[in-house]
Amino acid sequence: MAVTLEQPARACLVTPEGRDRVLPVTLRYAAADPLAVQIVFPPEASLDGAEVTWIFGRQLLEEGLRAPAGGGDVHIWPCGRARTVLEFRAPRGLALVQFDRAALRRFLLRTYAVVGAGREVAGLDLDQDLARLLGGV
């Protein structure tokens, strides 16, 4: 049975006007996709009023809790002693979101309880996944 973790969290969307918005988000991890974590933002956080899910590497989250990390669309870095900033880049703009570092750390530790570090590939069926990608399944 595939395990999926969900953890509610509070995020602070940093706005250009200086009126930061606190948002309820969901941190999600699925054992079926053990290399990735997800952050689900509510519809009020998006430009088009739809729920938005960002998916990025679990390793990136771990690295970003300690030091600046990332490339491409997602960058993460510590901000002071208790906060972590996630920067999401999309064709329509940029979003800076602050999280309580302890909440992200707690979530990350919970993911490692489901699939341990270095065990991510052990549970994958690479042949089946490749066949699915190539249209064989």
Keywords:
single chain; 137 residues; alpha+beta; Transcriptional Co-activator pc4, Chain A; eight-stranded antiparallel beta sheet; 3 helices; 23% helix
Molecular structure report:
The protein is α+β, with helices and mostly antiparallel strands and 137 residues long. The protein has a single domain, classed as Sporulation-specific cell division protein SsgB (Transcriptional Co-activator pc4, Chain A), CATH 2.30.31.20. The chain has helices at 58-66, 101-114, 126-133; strands at residues 4-14, 21-30, 36-41, 52-57, 69-71, 74-79, 83-90, 93-100. The protein has an eight-stranded antiparallel beta sheet with strand order 4-3-2-1-8-7-6-5, with helices on both faces. A hairpin with a 2-residue loop joins strand 5 and strand 6 (74-79). Helix 1 (58-66) packs antiparallel against helix 2. The model has no long low-confidence stretch (mean pLDDT 89).
Question: Would you kindly provide a brief summary of this structure?
Answer:
This protein is an alpha+beta fold. It contains three helices and eight strands, in the order ββββαββββαα.
